[in-house]
């Protein structure tokens, strides 16, 4: 409990959200019923499942299998990017970054690999891959809950962006020189086949709750109790600060939604699909795509436009996605300041360039 409290107290993003929510009280009067508890419970159950799988080193084992087949640094980056892309679809973009960043940086130090460009690609892969599934990132989870869409409808919506993102990333990886490398070191992991299978069942139950096939409240209770019995440490590793951050986002948005001048302005800039798309894309660069999603969803029925806007909106600036900031925190902890400065330059250049390219494609797709 002490560790959980400490993480919450040191969560800078949460405290920024708390301050923003507090200041928003001067803008409008928030309502308790505006907090989307469906999203909160879905996110909680999902994070428990993710932490259970993470505790069993599922992604680590997959990454090791891929890396043992790498013969040069380009292949190492390609496999890592692919793993981030696919892993983020099921384990969220945050977990993909938390798992793969340390792994890649260890390899980079061992084999003198470049860091700035490959880590930028890993972040891009995590953001673009997570956009494919309803549970890959928080904004998708919110969109599913807010617009009440089923899984198949969501995948039809997200598949074009997934394919565009995959081909874009594949092309970018050829910017890595195919220099030969030594064999990747092998790690031995404890076997937890039974617990992994049970966790996958819990994950499936969570999806049933998200899509309202099974009562979400009971789903969350079952997942938490099962998670506690399977691995108490995993329960303690859940990012409860993110849940509180989301509640702050809902309070912030509720305050804005009860301000006549702001509602008129937001309604004006979201009245068409293209307007919703461009507004989501733009606002995400400033306040991040999760709060942008929560804010704009109350004013537009153009789901496709909003989905494309906020998911592509995760590209661009460092603050455009919470996952971007998480990646920066990882680099600050694992590397030195010159490497971080180089990462910032490369990240900004590549992200803005890709935002222009994919943003233009998205614009014509929405039209």
TrEMBL record:
The chain crosses the membrane at residues 12-28, 40-59, 79-101, 113-133, 153-176, 197-230, 242-262, 274-299, 305-326, 346-366. It is found in: Cell membrane. It holds the Pfam family CitMHS. Residues 15-298 form the Citrate transporter-like domain. GO terms for cellular component: plasma membrane. GO terms for biological process: transmembrane transport. The lineage of its organism: Bacteria, Bacillati, Bacillota, Bacilli, Lactobacillales. Keywords: Cell membrane, Membrane, Transmembrane, Transmembrane helix, Transport. This is Di-and tricarboxylate transporter. It is a multi-pass membrane protein.
């Amino acid at each position: 409990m002490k560790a959980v409290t400490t993480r919450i107290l040191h969560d800078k993003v949460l405290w920024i959200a708390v301050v923003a929510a507090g200041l928003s009280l001067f803008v409008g009067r928030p309502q308790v019923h505006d907090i989307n508890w469906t999203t909160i419970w879905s996110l909680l159950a999902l994070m428990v499942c993710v932490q259970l799988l993470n505790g069993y080193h599922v992604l680590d084992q997959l990454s090791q299998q891929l890396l043992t087949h790498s013969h040069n640094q380009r292949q190492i980056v390609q496999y890592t990017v692919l793993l981030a892309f696919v892993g983020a679809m099921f384990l969220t973009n945050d977990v993909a970054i938390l798992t793969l960043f340390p792994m890649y940086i260890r390899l980079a130090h061992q084999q003198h690999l470049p860091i700035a460009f490959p880590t930028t690609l890993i972040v891009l892969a995590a953001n673009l891959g997570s956009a494919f599934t309803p549970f890959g990132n928080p904004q998708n989870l919110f969109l599913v809950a807010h617009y009440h869409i089923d899984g198949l409808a969501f995948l039809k919506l997200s598949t074009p962006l997934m394919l565009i993102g995959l081909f874009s990333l594949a092309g970018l990886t050829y910017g890595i020189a195919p220099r030969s490398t030594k064999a990747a070191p092998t790690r031995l992991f404890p076997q937890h086949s039974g617990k992994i299978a049970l966790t996958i069942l819990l994950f499936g139950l969570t999806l049933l709750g998200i899509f309202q096939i099974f009562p979400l409240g009971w789903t969350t209770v079952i997942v938490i109790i099962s998670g506690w019995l399977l691995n108490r440490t995993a329960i303690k590793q859940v990012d409860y600060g993110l849940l509180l951050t989301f509640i702050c986002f809902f309070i912030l948005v509720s305050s804005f939604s009860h301000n006549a001048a702001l509602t008129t302005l937001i309604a004006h800039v979201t009245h068409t699909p293209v307007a919703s798309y461009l507004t989501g894309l733009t606002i995400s660069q400033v306040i991040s795509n999760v709060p942008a999603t929560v804010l704009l969803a109350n004013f537009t029925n153009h789901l496709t436009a909003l989905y494309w806007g906020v998911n592509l909106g995760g590209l661009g600036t460092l603050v455009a996605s919470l996952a971007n900031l998480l990646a920066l925190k990882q680099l600050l902890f694992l590397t030195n300041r010159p490497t971080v400065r180089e990462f910032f330059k490369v990240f900004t250049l590549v992200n803005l360039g890709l935002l222009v390219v994919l943003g233009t494609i998205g614009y014509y797709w929405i039209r």
